[in-house]
Amino acid sequence: MFSTEFLDIPPLTEAAGTVRLPGSKSISNRVLLLAALASGTTTVHDLLDSDDTRVMLTALAQLGCRIEQADGTLRITGLGGRLSTPQATLFMGNAGTAMRPLTAALSLLGGDFELSGVPRMHERPIGDLVDALTQLGCHIDYLGNPGYPPLRIHPVSLQSLQLDAPIRVRGDVSSQFLTALLMALPLASRRDITIDVVGELISKPYIEITLNLLARFGIGIRREGWQRFTIPAGSQYRSPGEIHVEADASSASYFIALGAIATSDGLRIEGVGAASIQGDIRFVEAAEKMGARVESGPNWLVVTRGAWPLKAITLDCNHIPDAAMTLAVMALYADGPTTLTNIASWRVKETDRIDAMANELGKLGAKVESGPDFIRVFPLAADGWRAASIRTYDDHRVAMCFSLAAFNPASVPVRILDPHCVAKTFPDYFETLFSVVKPLSVPAICIDGPTASGKGTLAVEVAHALGYHYLDSGALYRVTGLAMRRAGLEPTPANEARISALARTLPLRFDAGKAMLAGEDVTDAIRSEAAGMDASRVSALPSVRAALTTLQVGFRQLPGLVADGRDMGTVIFPDAPLKVFLTASAAHRAERRYKQLISKGISTTLDSLRSDLEARDLRDSSRSVAPLKPAEDARRLDNSSLSIEQSVEQVLNWWQEVQPFRPA
């Protein structure tokens, strides 16, 4: 998961492979609450691990549920409709699928509770749900603006509730209000309880999910169309024992769109298929109307590009409110304006999604028209695209759907601000995207310099700030030497072919500056004097050097790479858009190395270190193969008097200068 300030996605061209989707947020949080309300223990498989589900799990644990996690499953021992913790303060983050149902359930369970969230949650309306609950006789106070969280719930007895008349709730703001009532009212069903929906019910497929899951937990709701729902007298929650969470159909929309936009032989999506209980699976129909070719099975989809450009459509999106956001970005690749209607619910989601989409599509260069419940997006010509920094408004779906803009025909990159917001539903979204796409090119930053210049520390920090991969080229020869010794080989010409074969396939990665060989931390093992000698000897073998050159090039993967060494900018990545030659005086470098060695209990002197560094500089700069020297277009950085923070800031500033993005 990327926790950087921004994530730059370079121009993308193709997509192929298989995507395994995370569990559905809507199903996951419903299952968690139903399991908590039921009698018995429920084993949940394939639960989504995200911010929203963690919020719900934390709240349920505070309320007294026993929760056990092991081997990819979760076991919840339910409350059986009775609280063991009658008082709690619960933080709901920005999880509407936790705030709304818990508000209803806790209002009927007889405790004293305070529910709050992030500032955006306090802007999301809940007044219609509270009004419906107060009709029953529940006692709820607003602690801030009337109609919005935070809330204080006071205890009431079930016997005091007014269940004779139908409970009226608006259906045209959020289907989560009706879902919350349907999930809570079985707790009070000493007689039939009727809910009447006032106005048109939006997002009906989400109610279908609720009804389906209620039935799994023993509650059979009777309904008359979409206007009246009846909870039968004597309804009681019973654990189904085990339940599997479907993959998220809303998350599938980004990859369905990806298959429709990118050239490929077919993108396979696993975890959800045509038989899904989620309404957003009907995004497939919308994508097909725009030209996608979709094959489907019980638990999979395969999507390929069909019509190109995509076909413009006008679509009532009431049935796919979340997934419809993806259509707004697909519209950029269409043959005319695309109009999405009946999307008033966008305005009360994690952000005002109609305004957010209009603003950010405009940054890309698109013409957009919008109103209270619609958005119309005009396609972009190849020369109309602009590199844009996309503000995500702490909204996971904004971040994910705008990643698709990286397939633009102008080959301009897209910057996603606050990429961490995808943690709400799909923490590994960008990693999953990068695993199936092909970029036009991958950005690289080269940081070369002499021994003890601090290039390794600088490169690690720059890579961390950008969310890029890191390559410590100097460690490669040491790791090769270690692998050679473990294979029982000596660094001689007779063993050169076997050693180069080892080097070519080293299972090596760098994690926060540590060298990991086949998952083992070998950072300390390769820093010994013997390892240094082995590194020098294997580096003298030409085919080993060639093998390691290939290996180093392979580290250049999405979203980008920061590489440090002595010939990164001159030999390995000569096309890198930013090359830095880092240096410092021999005196300063000797002093740094002296402090480093003394801190490890190694005895040395400043004079000997300085002499050694000067001699090594001479050898490195005069060697016949890849001598140490700045690339012609390298930017020189003398960090003799700079802190690491100042050096990082300078390199990041230079990086921004070579990017096409305007200030956000």
Automatic annotation (TrEMBL):
Keyword Nucleotide-binding recorded: yes
Broad enzyme group: transferase
CDD domains for this protein: CMPK (cd02020), EPSP_synthase (cd01556)
Entries under Gene3D superfamilies matching the protein: Enolpyruvate transferase domain, P-loop containing nucleotide triphosphate hydrolases
Residues annotated as domain Enolpyruvate transferase: 15-433
Record's keyword annotation contains Protein biosynthesis: no
Binding site for ATP: 449-457
Active site: 322
Residues the record lists as binding phosphoenolpyruvate: 25, 96, 124, 176, 353, 397, 424
List of residues binding 3-phosphoshikimate: 25-26, 30, 174-176, 203, 322, 349
UniProt GO MF annotations: 3-phosphoshikimate 1-carboxyvinyltransferase activity; kinase activity
Residue ranges constituting the Cytidylate kinase domain according to the UniProt record: 445-654
EC code(s) of this entry: 2.5.1.19, 2.7.4.25
PROSITE patterns per record: EPSP_SYNTHASE_1, EPSP_SYNTHASE_2
Pathway assignment: Metabolic intermediate biosynthesis; chorismate biosynthesis; chorismate from D-erythrose 4-phosphate and phosphoenolpyruvate: step 6/7
Family: Belongs to the EPSP synthase family. Belongs to the cytidylate kinase family. Type 1 subfamily.
Assembly with partners or alone: Monomer.
HAMAP family hit by this protein: Cytidyl_kinase_type1 (MF_00238), EPSP_synth (MF_00210)
Function: Catalyzes the transfer of the enolpyruvyl moiety of phosphoenolpyruvate (PEP) to the 5-hydroxyl of shikimate-3-phosphate (S3P) to produce enolpyruvyl shikimate-3-phosphate and inorganic phosphate.
Protein name per its UniProtKB record: Multifunctional fusion protein
Species this protein is from: Variovorax humicola
Taxonomic path: Bacteria, Pseudomonadati, Pseudomonadota, Betaproteobacteria, Burkholderiales
Gene assigned in the entry: cmk
